[in-house]
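name: query_chain
kind: protein
chains: 1
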Amino acid sequence: MSGLPEGWIVKMSQSHGKEYYYNTTTQESQWERPGCAAPPDTVRASHLLVKHKDSRRPSSWREERITRSKEEALEILNGYLSQIKSGTPFADLASQFSDCSSAKRGGDLGHFGPGQMQKPFEDATFALSVNEMSGPISTDSGVHIILRTA
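structure:
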């Protein structure tokens, strides 16, 4: 018996060389052991990132070279925000359209604490209540919608 909740197994990440947890029922994967409490003073969040030409790395898994302006990125992000408010699941849009590699996990960034994210992103996330979504947040990476999940 592994001591894991039903449906969870341990797998090895080929790209990171460390163990992670996989739910065979929901097909969810995560680094943290399921059922364990989050470390104190941390939050968990998902995000949807739209990069622009002035982002610190203007490329992504979706586009090799991003040429849109910050204003165009904000227009795109506001369109996603409207879709989410109209009932489209956040994770669905993040999986399809986020310029972050976290798109593979529906935008989930896992747990993080102070000093682990860019300051505007961290401040916005810690200011949100659990299950609350931000408006557009601008960082050196691009523009984000953040959903605090824990």
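note: The CA atoms of residues 48 and 98 lie 5 Å apart.
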